[in-house]
Amino acid sequence: MNRRSRFLTFVTACIPGIGYMYLGLMKKGIQACVIFFLLEDILSIIGLGGIGNLIQFILWFYLFFDTYNIAHRMDNGEIVMDSDFFFEKYMSNNSNAVNNSSEFDSMNFKKKQPIQLDKKNMTIIAYIIITLGVLGIVNKFFAGSYVYYQIKEGITQYFIPVMLIIGGLFMLRKKEH
Prior knowledge:
This is DUF5683 domain-containing protein. By secondary structure, the chain is mainly alpha-helical. It has a domain at 1-85. Helix content is 67%, strand content 3%. The chain has helices spanning 6-13, 18-22, 26-45, 49-75, 87-90, 119-142, 146-176, and strands at 91-93, 115-117. Strands 1-2 form a two-stranded antiparallel ribbon. The longest helix has 31 residues, at 146-176. The protein is globular and about 60 Å long.
């Protein structure tokens, strides 16, 4: 069992996606890195650049702790396969689907099945897309009014500290049970 340097694991985990690459999970690392660094720009295009920072903050914590979790699993001898960062969790292979194309999996030489969203996850993604669209319209419509500015400032200043307090209380409560 070859243990990785805890210091290097910490340093690479601080940079989104790089920690995965340090652990040898290149596909997952590149996808996480691209998603993290393009997220704010993509949300800015639809007028939601302000929540991009919040989502990046949450994503950074997830990536940091997931990198540590995977490193711990690898150090305990578990084999962790490189997989998609995001898409594989929310999609499933439809084994009943017919694929007439000549695409083959390069490793197993099996015919690839088209990937389809699960019904539940498709509904969740649809609601997220609708919510982002509505938020983009509201942002454009009310931008410039005093009330909108005050609400946006309040959320920006207090949301993250309140979420940290709630998260800490949740962890303490869970520890007691």
